[in-house]
Amino acid sequence: MLDELRSYILEDKFKITILIDKVDIVNYSEIDHFDDREIIVRYSKGVVIIKGENLSIAKLLNEEILIIGKIKKVEFDV
Predict the structure, then answer these.
(1) How confident is residue 78, by pLDDT bands cut at 50, 70 and 90?
(2) Edge-to-edge strands of the sheet including 38-43?
(3) Class assignment of domain 14-77?
(4) Where are the domains positioned within the chain?
(5) How far apart (Å, rounded) are the C-alpha atoms in residues 58 and 29?
(6) pLDDT tens, position by position, 28-67
């Protein structure tokens, strides 16, 4: 049980959660582009392109970014 909890807390794999008007990305490398209509986030195997309206970054940590706004499209480019 303790090992499972430790691996969950120390997770280093890329993870993206898409909700209505929110995109949460964990274990990204860097932000390549940011404006209110498009945000491009780099991760180990490529980039995630989030397109929409009134996009903004609600949370920005070393390993996690939360993007909010009217999300219209999420694309992966490897």
Answers:
(1) confident
(2) 15-19, 22-26, 64-77, 46-60, 38-43, 30-34
(3) mainly beta
(4) 14-77
(5) 18
(6) 999 999 999 999 999 999 999 999 999 999 999 989 999 9
